[in-house]
């Protein structure tokens, strides 16, 4: 008997609202309907397993079909189906109240764009793309099939149907302004985006498969082919398996599956698997990291029970780990809330700290198991680790055992090893241990040499955020300071008590200082006459650590950099070695002209060695040098 009914009075508002609010995200209807079909299939499998459903289950699948002529899109499952009463209850009442609840929530978060695609709007999302929706369903229970139909108005019809197999077919009569959803390529794209790893096989059309040639086939015979179902998903992706059942190659293959356009192999992976106090599985990969911190295209993907949700995991995964790749699957992450709420949510906080801990533990075990291999990877992973040390206190503590400090000679020290090694030689008169480093061994070559000659260890620290990390280490470790090799002349980098005897008196130094300052007449240089070893260079340009680091920190952003330093001009010290023969010559020279020309030429040489001589000054210098030697 055919019946008519009215869904609910308030529903009159709902369809236009669905269309309006969800305008940009119409495509999620397919994910919602396939999720329902998957649930129905898994529920029936469960009922059969526990003996409540007396049915023979074959290889169950879900089929998606396009009928271009009829302008319909079909989603067909072999799940538990619905009786007429159930259609009344679940579709007319439950599904509707779900949609209403959704709209209630959505109104409050309308400003928080980006979250919309994460809502489970459910069955009614079909009306975003269809003028009319049919449900033809037969329950696994021995009851007649029913046909429900609704054209988007609050009125529906329900009548008997002649379907004989259990399961449900949803027919969407695609509206004229949504015809893209009748295109095979568009549906393929959506299935690949949202359903690639769903747990029930999804068939979309047929494909041709090449079979092996029979033994007696001739060389020129074409290989036989056959038409098979085109299954678009992998129902058993690697992250749903136990780590013990997976080989290294399986992880690599899965990486390929996730990012088909990614040709670089991952460095290593971390399998996440926890069921208490929250449910979470997943695999994270460390990709090869380069210096540029650009946002990457291949990002961590978030799934809920194998249904793709988003690749924006901000707030769920700690920020420093968003540079990784891979998959996280958790039914416990609330998605129908705004991101700011997400960050305050207790379960999400626990998830985030669990992930941090797992990553730290994995790094620690890689370090312990094969230190040489870990050192080899260091350059590619250091940005993530250094960034983590800066942003997560817990990670900072754990990383102390495996974060490495490489030297220009190719040794890699942990923090404790480094301090033990340099403490005897690099502790200054105030009992501070001075860690020397270079950010660019080519550009700072002569300074690195001077330090190495003195028996000092020089670290090579060249990540973009390293100035922030040094600041952090200086404040959390006792009595250490970082100094770049060109921050001062060698005798001053690590101040010891041994004073050099000066060949010039204090007054003589002062007068020389004035002469040089007047001659170079450049406010960005502070002239400093010092008694140094006569072997050291006569003029050395240095850049004081503090100012330079503050400027760098401001340039790379984040907390710590002091306001205002970014706009300051670069400031240098011009260190003059009072004990060098050339300085003696300049000082004793009777002719002012000679003095000036010696000073100019030598200061230009010092600038040249620091890469600071450019443009017109460089041209003048070259010309002057030719004049001198001709
Ligand atoms: N393909 C199907 N087979 C059997 N029952 C279905 C099917 N699709 C929907 N249903 C029934 O209709 C109900 C409502 O579906 P709807 O998608 O609106 O909400 P939901 O699946 O419960 O929640 P969600 O908002 O997460 O999608 C389901 O709970 C289920 O009982």
From TrEMBL:
Where in the sequence does UniProt note compositional bias of the Polar residues kind? 227-239
Q: Which NCBIfam families match?
A: PRK05218.1
Q: Which residues bind ATP?
A: 32, 36, 77, 82, 97-98, 168, 339
Under what name is this protein listed? Answer: Chaperone protein HtpG
User: By its UniProt entry, which InterPro entries does this protein fall under?
Assistant: HATPase_C_sf, Heat_shock_protein_90_CS, HSP90_C, Hsp90_fam, Hsp90_N, Ribosomal_Su5_D2-typ_SF
Region annotated Disordered, chain positions: 209-243
Q: Which GO terms describe its molecular function?
A: ATP binding; ATP hydrolysis activity; ATP-dependent protein folding chaperone; unfolded protein binding
Q: Which family does it belong to?
A: Belongs to the heat shock protein 90 family.
Pfam families linked = HATPase_c_3 (PF13589), HSP90 (PF00183)
Q: Does the keyword Chaperone apply?
A: yes
Supply the alphabetized keyword list.
ATP-binding, Chaperone, Cytoplasm, Nucleotide-binding, Stress response
